[in-house]
Amino acid sequence: MTARLVLLGPPGAGKGTQASRLSDRLGVPAISTGDIFRANVADATELGRRAQRYMDAGEYVPDEVTNAMVRARLAEPDTEQGFLLDGYPRTAEQVRELDAMLDEQGRRLDAVVEITAAADVVIARLLGRAREQGRADDTDVVIRRRLEVYREQTEPLTSLYAERDLLVQVDGIGEVDEVTERIVGALQPLLV
Asked: Annotated catalytic, 38?
């Protein structure tokens, strides 16, 4: 079975949690741009320093930086049978870039899963995570800005992927296991 998936949803919808669980269930790597960014920041790389400025302000890291990281990651051997992209694409331009990457490799997406969640729920989740994990990038002001940027730049991608018959919407509210089962159930007919 191959599974080439994209996870969409607002910050705090549970994409990271579900990406990890789906990765295990489907046997494909979860590729999180957030993890890639944080690793570069922790290692104080040139890329990390560039990304940090944007992350601290709740803005998206510029496409040229993000696209280069994703292109390199999708070329690694462990993505042969599939992958799960968490946090990419976030803009229409990134969709075009991902399309080009996949075309070059003779691949295509199987589905795009949008995990839906109300703004008040994701704000509460992110503030709780900030307290538990000491994450400096999860302040109330930054969270609200990230949600605004999501609505402006990423939410429109759902229409684009719906037009391609790739969009699967799943309610992200509930117990983690429930949400995982909803996603797996929704994907079952699409994956071969």
From this structure: no
